[in-house]
Specification:
Number of helices: 10
Order of helices and strands: HEHHEEEEEEHEHEEHEEEEHEHHHE
Helix content: 25-40%
Strand content: 15-25%
Distance between the termini: 49 Å
Number of strands: 16
Number of domains: 1
Length: about 325
């Protein structure tokens, strides 16, 4: 199926589920990412990597050094790794960044984006850019209040419009928490990332959870992102054209860390914190960084720099982490 046909099929799907020709914005994002047989994350394609045909790169693309640092950080959090399974959620096909460290864990389980996750009793859960891959709601500050946005599907072109009422009780509750903002400000909120986090942490398993992603607090979004944080990625180019090429490009927004930290605490996790990626690795895996820097060649040094330097992944990405004791 070519890109135009995929886009048209997703629009038809949205039309079939619309009310008065309008769907909540989050439904458009969900269909674009996860519609069976059509969505960006459920079709086989080159999504991640430095290849020209891929759409974006992640910290995991630096190779085994990423796995080495994550394993060292996990050891700092839980101690002996042999009694814990490494559970990687959101893994892309063919990725092997944990191949050199998997034997340190009791087991290594991998789950693709969107797959049901079965957590063992003792685990280190690691998710790299999983939370930002969830559908997001979009809100507009207008006439002194916040309204949720939707998309009109019965016109010639997709058109963003305000909804008369919030799409769900959770959306209404979120709006009630929002502070005042300037007229016309847009806020993107991946509320479904919160639900995903709750589901991953349920069941009473013990160990550590490590989520590497990019995000801000609500306050930070309302200070520096008047047009919202949503964007599209395709062929390593970022775009604000998020209503185009549905199913053929990644749609994402910043996660809201101040919404996610309380979810971890409510699930019984302690030592919950959001660190810049560089700080997380320095504090939790500093000894491994020193060992790798001393023994590795230019390729290893370059990987360390990519993961920790502020100009690369070190500042742009953050890490939400915590532990739950037995």
């Amino acid at each position: 199926m070519d890109d135009a046909s995929r886009h048209a099929a997703i629009v038809d799907l949205l039309k079939s589920g619309s009310r008065a020709g309008v769907v909540p914005f989050v439904e458009l994002v969900r269909a674009a990412l996860y519609a069976p047989g059509l969505g960006y994350y459920v079709t086989e394609r080159a999504r991640v990597g430095r290849r020209a045909e891929a759409d974006f790169t992640t910290a995991a693309e630096v190779g085994p050094v990423f796995g080495e640092l994550v394993a060292a950080a996990a050891e700092s959090l839980v101690g002996d790794l042999s009694g814990h399974a490494l559970v990687e959620v959101g893994a892309e096909p063919g990725q092997s960044h944990f191949s050199s460290v998997a034997s340190r864990f009791g087991a290594h389980l991998t789950f693709r984006v969107g797959e049901a996750v079965a957590m063992p009793p003792r685990a280190v859960l690691v998710a790299n850019e999983l939370l930002d891959a969830q559908p997001f709601h979009r809100y507009l500050r207008t006439e002194g209040r916040w309204v949720e946005l939707g998309v009109r599907t019965d016109s010639r072109e997709l058109e963003v419009v305000p909804l008369d009422v919030p799409s769900t009780p959770a959306s209404a509750a979120f709006i009630a928490t929002l502070p005042d903002a300037e007229e016309g400000w847009i806020l993107d909120a991946p509320l479904e990332a919160e639900e995903l986090l709750r589901s991953l942490l349920e069941g009473g398993w013990c160990g550590a959870a490590v989520f590497l992603d990019y995000g801000r607090t609500v306050a930070q979004c309302l200070e520096s992102s008047p047009a919202g944080t949503a964007r599209a990625y395709r062929r390593h180019r970022m775009s604000g054209e998020i209503l185009e090429g549905l199913g053929s490009q990644d749609l994402t927004s910043h996660v809201l860390w101040d919404r996610l930290e309380p979810v971890m605490r409510a699930a019984g996790f302690s030592e919950v914190k959001v660190d810049r990626q560089e700080a997380f690795f320095v504090l939790k895996a500093g000894h491994a960084m020193e060992r790798l820097a001393a023994s590795g060649g230019p390729e290893v040094t370059g990987a360390l720099r990519a993961l920790t330097h502020p100009a690369h992944y070190g500042f742009k990405f953050q890490v939400l982490h915590g532990v739950r004791r037995a």
